[in-house]
Design a protein that fits this description.
alpha+beta, elongated
Length: 767
Amino acid sequence: MRSLTFLSKMTIYGFLLSTLPVIFIGAFSYATSSNEIQKNVNSGKMQLIMQINSNVEQKLTTVNHTLNQVINSTVLRKAMNQPLTVNEFVMYDDLRSEIRHMQSFDTKLEDVVLINERHNWMIKNSGLYSFEQYAYYEQLSGLMQVAEGTTWVLNPSKWFYSEEAAGSEACAYSISLVKKLPTNGLEKYGLALANIPTCSLQELLDNKGDHFSNIMILDDQNRILLHQDHSLIGKPIAVSGILPEQLGESSGQFTTAVEQKNYSVTYYRSELNGWTYLSTTSIAAMTKESNKIGTYTLYVCLFMLLLSMLLAWIGSRRMYSPIQLLLNQIGERPTDIRKRNTNEFQAIGERVAHLFQSKTALEKEVHQHLQQVRTFFFVKVFQGTVKPSEISERLEQFGYSQQLKAWRTMAAITLQIDFPDHSRYSKNDLELLLFAVHNMLEELIPSDLRLAPIIMDQTIVTIIGSAETDSKAFHNAKYALTEHLQQQITSYLNVQVSIGMSLPFSSFSSLAIAYREGLEALKHRIKLGEGIIIQYENVNEGKHYLNLNYPAHLENELMDAIKLADKDRAKELLRTFLQAVFAIELSPQEYQIPLARLLNNLLIIMQESGVSLTQIHPRKGSLLEELLELHTTAEIDDWFWTRVVYPLVKIFKDRQEAQYHNISEKIIDLVQHQFDTDLTLEECASHLHYNANYLSSVFRKETGYSFSEYLTIYRFQMAKKWLEDSDMPIKDIAAKLCYNNSQNFIRSFRKQEGMTPGQYRYKKRTG
């Protein structure tokens, strides 16, 4: 069986990799959307019945208030203490006026009935009646047994119609507000009834639902008060297929079967009068909506699947193109690879293995050039064109790690060949003699005591070093070594050489200075003659080359203060630096050298930090020319501060503040996304790659709070939001906010807000 090409394998893998996520996402999207539909419908139904509850209770409360005004009126109090006859027309008219004030369009009141059982009279819309002779005397008299206080009772509407209007009621039932009279007496012998026909409240339920839901209202005995089917009003809830046991104490949702169909029931029990508001929603209808989403999801997933497979095919070909290009470059054809029953990577591996076989030959060739590269590096070092920071790194690359670690004192040795009149050599032999002397130095000086000697400008240069820290001992060893070299060269080659030695130094960054000191020492052959060994300290009073007494340590501290944006420290160091420069007795022209050096180093710091010259010097012209035109120390001090140092301090300060603000924003974002975890400052520091102490100081400086204080404040904000907007139990809120137990959370909340979480929730919802 012929093996598949790598392109075919990548394409098949891409198809599988693109298919599985699309299928998973499609299934997950359908399941999630279906759940969200039911969740949103249930949430909407809860909001709807809460709205209906609010509207109904508003009307009931209005009726209660107006009825209280009637029963507390002077007219009614007076009427309750006397019998009423047809002759008491004024009293009757006053009572009817009080009743008419209650009956408005907003309250939906159909009739207000006043009953005085002691004096045997009853007043309603149709007139004044003898209570004992009224047709429904026993039923209305039975209402005297209701509990004290405000009571809403479902009664047949026919109780409140006189004999001449019997059967003309619009609704079979009325909702009656029953109050016993007199309100302030111990003995109750009267009633005040405010009747609202159930039909008048039915409009609150009309057009509130949709084509697959139904809304009803139950009284405190689970009898149906309002229903779209008027025939069910007054009957127990069980006739609608819902059992009273399924209703909880306050509110909730559950699923039940009604007439072999599943319904989602949402209910809310009013605290005002114990009525229950229900909304029943057909799950089948909701599922039908979900099926539509499922169809759309299927079409989208099919499109995404085709698109993913197309992208996988195109991507596989593009990823295979470098392999194809590599095969073409090494001369391999896909047909030849398949004939060998192998794959592309095996073919490439065979060619790479063949290339590695020549590794030894290549290393030998590179080694031959290594000496030339090393020589070129030393030439650049002695010329001073290599950065001091790079010297140690490059020396380690050339195999001088031992010298870097062991040497404490070093010196440069420069050697030139002399051609006296009696010499048997001429200057035409110089190249050959330099090569011979170079080889002798490599043999006479142990490799652990020197760097490789090189030939520069007809001079052989090498660096010798020692672990010795005693300058006198190193001086004696250095002088003995140079005498031995001079003697051996003269003995073997019969040629005279002069040797110059630099001052001792301890840092490899001083190689260029030491080289110039060695050359400077050799220049004194004009006076001292040929074949000499001379040390630089004997011809220049022991001073290093170009030593200007420049206060470099103060300059370094000044640069650090500028980078740290420490304004006061920078100003103090600038003044101290200039005092140190002007403390030396120099000519005015000589003072320009350290000042120009300071300006140059400041500009270098500015350039290395990415600061444009126009940011501190927007005007055209040369800063150096401005500096050289100054004549007093005060002018120079002020010019450096106002034109260079302080602008740089402000730039670094702005960068520092921007960095602090960015860090604080990242910490706040972590708190807002991970407040419900055991988030610590150390975790934030690890995530942002900063030191924890540094983050703590930056965050407090930017926000005025410590990290723990801010995290606690934000958690309490979330707790108050959950208490106001949700019914989440307090123990669940405590758990989400990472409290060990709910009691700790309650104590902390009380300390913060002055009340318990439960009291806070009640206050926000009732206030």
